[in-house]
Amino acid sequence: SARMAKSKFEYVRNFEIDDTCLRNCYIVVRLDGRNFHKFAEDHNFLKPNDDRALALMVRSATSVLEELEDINIAYGQSDEFSFIFKRSSTWFRRRASKLMTHVASQFSSSYVFYWGEFFSDQPLLHPPSFDGRVVLYPSNRNLRDYLSWRQADCHINNLYNTAFWALVQRGGCTTAQAEERLKGTVAADKNELLFSEFNINYNNEPSAYRKGTTLLWGRTDEASTKKIKPSNGDERQVLVTRSRRQVTTHHCDIIGDQFWDEHPDILEP
Ligand code: ATP
Ligand code: ATP
Ligand code: MG
Ligand code: MG
Ligand code: MG
Ligand code: MG
What we know:
10 helices, binds magnesium ion, globular, alpha+beta, single chain, Alpha-Beta Plaits, binds adenosine-5'-triphosphate
């Protein structure tokens, strides 16, 4: 309040440190679910990929894009999501703690708010939380490599988990035996194991599992009717179409050039 601002206590504000993000850099905020191995168990997530949980993550991330400013692209997999603020953003004067905490709390509250839409038969047993970190990337190559790193991580983990749970759920292995079987195997070995023992062609697994989810801004035309009343005429209905900004979801490769060629507006000069 105005009175507080003039008090002798005011000096304590000087203890706050400046955490302004360097100009011209992309600001990445990555969230990760706290202790989600346990959270998934407690809430009976299906293994290796629970579609409800993935969809709830995407719904919560969509709410972050819609409610906060200047996020051009987001990428998520498992219990994590990365949000990329455009280089030129001046939102909250680029203060790292403001950006990170707004992303984390908007995401967490949305996760709880929308829980019932996705888990209709599974009560939420305790409040989940997400950690956040801020990383700055000065070049387009660095940002692309960051996103490639997360998508490669998605691929490596999902291939492992698909093989692991095939061995457990369909191969009669204990979790310890499945772990032992996969020790020291490379990607080609896991592909071969899935195909020869379980008739699973890994490339035919859903792209949401293999590639994760990328969120972008798109446009859709919305038709609606509007009542107009000319000053010297009768009221009538007219059809109007409006172009609306909308979050779109993609489960495609973001490592190669094709995605970036098709979406030239994400990276800034
Ligand atoms: P910012 O996003 O910058 O924080 P703000 O609208 O949240 O904007 P604050 O200075 O944090 O601004 O003020 C919080 C406001 O919330 C108060 O001014 C008051 O209007 C409202 N508010 C908070 N708690 C209560 C409460 N218990 N009863 C009535 N009003 C409240
Ligand atoms: P930390 O608090 O250190 O992040 P964590 O238990 O969350 O610990 P992570 O490495 O983040 O560890 O792993 C997240 C775990 O959440 C996965 O290993 C998996 O067990 C579970 N999980 C997340 N999303 C799903 C999903 N859609 N389907 C099934 N399991 C999931
Ligand atoms: Mg972790
Ligand atoms: Mg986690
Ligand atoms: Mg994780
Ligand atoms: Mg406030």
